[in-house]
Design brief:
By secondary structure, this protein is of the alpha/beta class. The protein is elongated and about 65 Å long. The chain has seven helices and 15 strands. The C terminus is likely disordered. It has two domains: 122 residues, Response regulator (Rossmann fold), CATH 3.40.50.2300; 104 residues, LytTr DNA-binding domain (OB fold (Dihydrolipoamide Acetyltransferase, E2P)), CATH 2.40.50.1020.
Length: 236
């Protein structure tokens, strides 16, 4: 399911946009509807995509987008408006796309297709490692964790195990901005693979557990919370 918001002060536009989204093939949307920028800003939900009108009373779409960007750098903002001369301002808040009213089905679907392509690439980048057998290229979401054991660093994926030519501490630093974190001096965990935490045990999606050191417990939990706040939820 993909969370998407529609924000427009015109009831007819809201209804038309919602209908088109429900007809969009292969993706099920959870749709929230807002009639003002103020109402959208009051929402605490994280959205993958926001369809946003620009010309609204009080807080217009430009200001609404600016305030949204302060708390969410990843959401895809797609403007839908009557006024073509707003394009310059739309780019200023890193709008993903810009569509003119009346909304055309083909144009909306094209932008949604592109948005999902970008989201997939950013959510699951390919990483490269030097192993005992040569260079390994692997999607980040396929990695569970790295472990230092018997003077070797192991990459544990969903299906295989590889021996790497590197230091576990170097991995912790290099991968920190890619959704990985060290909960223990001998482990680097993919936060995407965390199912939950109980005490000082980290449960992964494949049923295995990784130790969480008492010293790093608070730091790791904060890192996981930040990761989740960016729109990626726990596997249930």
């Amino acid at each position: 399911m993909v969370w998407i918001a529609i924000c427009d002060d015109e009831a007819a536009v809201l209804q038309q946009t919602e209908t088109l989204l429900k007809e969009y093939p292969e993706v099920d949307f959870c749709i929230d509807i807002f009639t003002s920028g103020e109402a959208l800003l009051e929402s605490t939900r994280s959205y993958e995509i926001i369809l946003l009108d620009i010309d609204m009373p009080e807080t217009d779409g430009i200001e609404t987008a600016r305030l949204i960007r302060q708390r969410d750098k990843k959401v895809k903002l797609i403007y839908i408006t009557n006024y073509s001369d707003y394009t310059v301002f739309a780019f200023a808040v890193h709008a993903f796309a810009y569509l003119l009213k009346p909304l055309k089905k083909e144009e909306l679907y094209k932008q949604l297709d592109e948005a999902f392509e970008y989201m997939q690439l950013s959510a699951n980048p390919q990483l490269e490692f030097h192993t005992a057998e040569g260079i390994l290229r692997i999607n980040s979401n396929d990695i569970l964790y790295f472990e230092y054991q018997n003077r070797k660093v192991y990459l544990r994926s969903k299906t295989d195990t590889y021996i790497l030519k590197c230091k576990i501490t170097d991995l912790g630093v290099q991968l920190k901005e890619k959704g990985f974190y060290m909960p223990h001096k001998s482990f680097v965990v993919n936060l995407y693979s965390v199912k939950n935490i109980k005490g000082y045990d980290i449960y992964l999606i494949n049923g295995l557990t990784v130790p969480l050191s008492q010293k790093k417990s608070m730091e790791f939990r904060r890192a996981l919370n930040r990761y989740l706040s960016e729109g990626i939820g726990l596997h249930l």
